[in-house]
Amino acid sequence: MKYYDTSRAHILASVDHSLRLMGIDHIDLLLIHRPDPLMDHHETGAALDEVIASGKVRSVGVSNFRHYDWELLQSAMKNQLVTNQIELSVLAHDSFVNGDVAFHQRIGTPLMAWSPLAGGALFSGDHPDIMSALSNVALQNNVDETAVAIAWLLAHPSRILPVLGTNSLDRIKGMSAALDVKMDRQTWYEIGPDGPMGITANSFASLSLDPPLVLWSPAKSSRRYDAFVNATEFAIHIASFDQLDLCRDFANSASGSSETDWKHAATGCPYLMGGVARFMCQQHATFDGGDHTIIVGKVIDFRATDGSPLIFSNGKYVAG
Asked: Which end of the chain, N or C, is more open, meaning fewer C-beta atoms within 10 Å of its C-beta?
């Protein structure tokens, strides 16, 4: 049975064993691989200080630690832990919002990202929306999608260090092109699955009065298809004529523009102010519609005001 062992005896023996196997006289960076529920932080911390004092190890860090695991171990050490290696990628993004990245950004320790390409899952064909976004940025920057996925991590202000699992010199060279990718805030959100997202649709329909249901149909080829089909809540807006620029923004970008003023309902569902009407919906059902999917929403809140609706007819926008 495999188990974790952060005892002094195991740490000292592992360091000596690694030095013999690699034929070197010191280890630049030693990581405690995962949290050990049986860790005696005083014993483990002292052992890590000991291997640094001996000259056998230059620096130590951890892997897959939450902030409370980090603080527990650090409290029993003289030397500073220098990094935490966690899973981060365009697909594995929970750490951006669960406090893990924020903790290390606050204390100024760079994170190492293991599996920055999601173990190849990013290129499996199961995430066409994200791959389409990566491909568009890759084309604009004359690089491949791998470089863009790495650039997405490098763009974060917490100083993320992707751990690239390849021995191919060509692949390493290709990934280094990530340093040349232009990644502004809007592009980052278009690639990433987090943050409010909008889309300009030319129509929707009323389906039922009891219960109140509406429907609309995103194209399966849309870069935003996955997000809306999987959304448990969404808002439908009937735009007013003075929101023409807003509609054009969302036709081009999932995040609208830097001027877009997002609001959030008590449930967390994003919506926009203004417009002629707004339907706050919970997803009720989805149905296959050929190259589209029909999304049925149950209306849980409705607001309407006077004004001229924005209509798209015969290839141009007009006032209703």
From this structure: N
283 Cβ contact partners less than 8 Å away, ≥ 6 residues apart: 231, 232, 233, 234, 295, 296, 297, 298
Token pair, residue 207, equals: 């389906």
Tokens 């190849």 correspond to 120
DSSP calls for 171-217 = HHHHHHGGGG----HHHHHHHSS-S------S--EEEEETTEEEEE-
pLDDT for 193 beyond 70? no
Give dist(CA 50, CA 59) in Å, integer.
11
Is the pLDDT at 70 greater than 80? The verdict is: yes
Backbone angles phi, psi at 24, to 5 degrees: -125, 170
What pLDDT sits at residue 256?
Answer: 65
Sign, Cα dihedral of 18, 19, 24, 30: positive
Beta partners for residue 304, in sequence order: 277
In tens, the pLDDT along 249-288 reads 888 776 666 567 777 787 767 888 889 999 999 999 999 9
Gap between the Cα atoms of 9 and 6, Å rounded: 8
Place of tokens 């003075």: 242
Residues 6+ positions from 121 with CB-CB distance below 8 Å: 91, 127
Percent of the chain with pLDDT over 70: 95
**pLDDT at residue 258 in the model:** 54
Task: Give SS3 for 27.
Answer: strand
Q: How far is CA 289 from CA 68, 92, 146, 286, in A?
A: 48, 30, 33, 9
Q: Cα–chain-centroid distance for residue 232?
A: 18
By DSSP bridging, strand 310-313 and strand 316-319 are: antiparallel
